[in-house]
Structure of Glycoside hydrolase family 15:
Amino acid sequence: MQRPNRTPVTHQAGQREDGYLPLEDYGALGEGRSVALSGADGSIDWWCVPNLDSQPLFDRLLDPEDGGRFVIQPEGPFTVERHYRHESNVLETVFTTPDGGRAKLTESMNSGNAGRLPWAELARRVDGLDGSVRFRVEMRPGRRADGASPYKSRIGNHDVFHVERMLGLFLTSDGVTRDQTDEAVIGNFTVTPGSREVLAIVAGEDEPLVVPPLDKIDSRIDLSDQEWRDWAHYVEYAGEWRDDFIRSVLALKLLLYSPSGAIAAAATTSLPEAVGGRKNYDYRYAWVRDAGYTIKAFLAAGAQAEAKAALTWLLKRLQEEDLHVMYRLDGGTAPQVKEIDVPGWRRTGPVRVGNVATDQHQHGIYGDIFETVARFVACGNLIDSSTAELLVHIADRCADHWRRKDSGIWELPEEEHYTTSKISCWQALARAVELVDQGQLPNTCRDRWCRERDRIAHWIEENCWSETQGAYVLHPGTDRLDAAMVLAVRFGFGNRGRLERTLDTIDQELGSGPFHYRYSDVQVEEGCFLACSFWMIEARALLGQKDRARDNLRTLVTALDRGVGIYSEMVDPRTGAYLGNLPQGLTHLAHIMAIEAIDLSDD
């Protein structure tokens, strides 16, 4: 699907609504280790260095007055038009001033000829296009909620800034004037047609710091762009929706933490699910569920190396005796929640580090694991004997535990017999039996798995179907609905007639325009969950409703077309404004699977 030209967004220098930009005004930069968010007004407001889950160097996103930021912005009024370079994660912004001046900002988290650099390198290049444009510069490290006191030192010919254990260089070309304080660099430069200024940050933590020549940093912007294009070229999708498909695959690639193969759920923490609400969570960790879904999305794109890296990370976690729902990106246990004393986005607190879900049990991990392995095998790959032994153990655990209550896919505080959790247990045992029949798992427990699979299916049909609602419900004993039920179609569960009725009921009860709420009665405390809307489209395509699925996908992506193609977790259905953490991996992978399902329905 080709993108129309985006409508320019007008910004007045230094003026934001209460100091904040809309979330849809951010683009994401990354290199496989960290992600920076660059605002449409030229301010990088979020960057955790050196890793996705490190403490932030720039945190203006959550602390507009005192947070760290890296600003390159025209002095006076301007408009912007911005986009990613074609099939790349290098971002371009064209600033236009009232007197006709135009300049282009090109931004990249740089990589090298041999892949990711062993240091963090954030590069920003400004080229003059028309007239004369004067820019102001501000590079101010964050104080980490007053937990750190950044300072600057002079080492040789270099200005070095220190933030606790992090060491960084701020490098500029000669045309940038700098008025330095101990905590910040404030400066200016002017570009005219044919002139260029380059500004960069090179940073690391507890390690010696390389000082690259600025011209090498500049050249690595284009090198990084070419590497993104080369990678995207081999993505196995050539259909009508390629532009959208590639953009979401590139967003997922930003969330793949290359040192371990973990998949971060998102690059941010505490962006609220509703302005003024309390649902603010840290998503800079790797969920078993999200890893499984993302592996399937990478396999759909033909990205075998990424899928293998993520699957290996997942299997290593499963070898641990104490299985968790989520982990740190390095494989450790995610920390318990700690609140940070900063205002939060749109002054919606609390700002949190850590996640309470780390100690929950969710039956969904069983289905996620086996569905991921089944998809890996379906692509012609093989399971080794050690992994096979591990999967047998997990299938036995699922068969033993499926009758227990759990916290469900939505990590709710009340444990219940959630319908989607039971379906996930059915899914796990169904896939386990199929893997036995394919010779990928030993035939030691097949009969037992078959019996438990069928018991689960019978239990769901007897206890979780509501004829009054015309739908499978959230859990027995309630008429509340769960939008995640649409995933049952992908999993191959259930009665087709009941599934079709469930989809229609969810549309009626949980739908709001092209968007959907996660479950009944949640609209008072959060926005619509974007993955649910893409799941609905996928389900309709898989059920043969391809024309409806195609129309719904066009409507949905048009409604989301407010930025550069980076999707958040949720959206306010009344205004279309983005809500929740971003880039949100679950949203992008659901987008990919919806496109794949529509294409399959055309075959």
